[in-house]
UniProtKB/TrEMBL annotation:
Name of this chain's protein: tRNA-dihydrouridine synthase
Binding site for FMN: Q85, K154, H184, G239, R240
Top EC class of this enzyme: oxidoreductase
PROSITE patterns, sorted: UPF0034
Family recorded in the similarity comment: Belongs to the dus family.
Role of this protein: Catalyzes the synthesis of 5,6-dihydrouridine (D), a modified base found in the D-loop of most tRNAs, via the reduction of the C5-C6 double bond in target uridines.
Natural source organism: Sinorhizobium mexicanum
Molecular function as annotated in GO: flavin adenine dinucleotide binding; tRNA binding; tRNA dihydrouridine synthase activity
Pfam families named in the record: Dus
Cofactor(s) in the UniProt record: FMN
Superkingdom in the source lineage: Bacteria
Length: 342
């Protein structure tokens, strides 16, 4: 089963892009999201047309110390390019992890300097690094020097509204060899509140020459086109708008149609089954619940509270798969047709 090809004229979003020596097939990227963009999700997003997909955040020190979860997040299954995101707070561990990641087939290594989660920033990783640009750049430089593959950087506008330092860090990151930069148009202290500031991303465009990827609140083709215009970016990264619809990046890139209700039900069933196979039954049922909830919220919003609760608390995979697929198929979701960007 696969979605239908669109056969529409090429758009700016469907054209290719190069990051270092790596060609990206279109300009819509799927954001790395811990607990969301695991291998089953990435495989679907890639098959349905995402320009690039990135692993969940891999903790550098834990990877070097052979933590099972870090190695699981590193896995790939035929997706090219294979892009791995590393997080950490010490240059030594970032460099060592980068070498491991490269030796395990990574085509690009992305550095996480944007995660706002307290458990990450509390360990002085993620967006907390933006509070100390000199230290942050020492991690970036160590990572670049450790490998031969392109290194990219993902960050926010700054820690808070009084420290908007993304342009400074971006310029210095390019100087030490970073080959693409992604900016989420919020500060860390905003988390995901308010509206992403697409115009503020342009200050980074003004000081770098490597590809710039803009991120934050992109849901439609019109959004993607507008964020490119206002930020001056070369590509767009989508995150939360893909939850519950792993085909979404491909739709924005103009390479796929929105699926109809029957296709969505089929995709859900495949996604759910693949997660159970990947994690094992007991862990897989638990990990899949958030995805189940997103599918229901988007495509079976009229499902009763009782039925939804029964599905989300069930440990019977057959019951979950059958009931969710039926709820989606019965809701009659109409395929959306958006005008493609010129």
């Amino acid at each position: 089963m696969c979605l239908k090809d669109m056969h529409l004229p090429p758009s700016a979003l469907s054209s290719s892009l190069r990051i270092g020596n790596v060609e990206i097939r279109n300009r819509i990227a799927l954001a790395p999201m811990s607990g969301v963009t695991d291998l089953p999700f990435r495989m679907l997003a890639w098959r349905f047309g995402a320009g690039l997909v990135v692993t969940e955040m891999v903790a550098s020190r834990e990877l070097v110390c052979n933590a099972a979860e870090s190695w699981a997040r590193l896995k790939n299954s035929g997706i090219e390019p294979h892009i791995v995101q590393l997080a950490g707070r010490e240059a030594h561990w970032m460099a060592e992890a980068a070498r491991i990641v490269e030796s395990n087939g990574a085509d690009i290594i992305d550095i996480n300097m944007g995660c706002p989660a307290k458990k990450v920033t509390g360990g002085y990783s993620g967006s907390a690094l933006m509070r100390d640009p000199d230290h942050a750049l020492s991690l970036v430089e160590a990572t670049v020097r450790a490998v031969s593959v392109p290194v990219t950087l993902k960050m926010r506008l700054g820690w808070d509204e009084n420290s908007i330092n993304a342009p400074l860090i971006a310029r210095r990151a390019e100087e030490v060899g970073v080959q693409a930069i992604t900016i989420h148009g919020r500060t860390r202290m905003q988390f995901y509140s308010g509206k992403a500031d697409w115009d503020a991303i342009h200050a980074v465009r003004d000081v770098i020459s490597v590809p710039l990827i803009a991120n934050g609140d992109v849901d439609t083709v019109a959004d993607a086109t507008e964020i490119l215009r206002r930020s001056g970016a070369d590509a767009v990264m989508v995150g939360r708008s893909s939850q519950g619809r792993p085909w979404h990046a491909g739709v924005l890139a103009g390479v796929r149609l929105h699926p109809d209700a029957l296709e969505i039900a089929q995709i859900f069933a495949e996604h759910y089954t693949t997660m159970l196979e990947f994690y094992g039954l007991q862990i897989g049922v638990r990990h899949a619940r958030k995805h189940v909830g997103w599918y229901i919220e988007r495509f079976a919003p009229n499902l009763s509270s009782a039925d939804k609760a029964a599905i989300l608390t069930s440990t019977d995979p057959a019951l979950v798969s059958e009931r969710v697929a039926a709820a989606i198929a019965n809701c009659g979701v109409a395929p959306v047709r958006e005008e493609m960007a010129a």
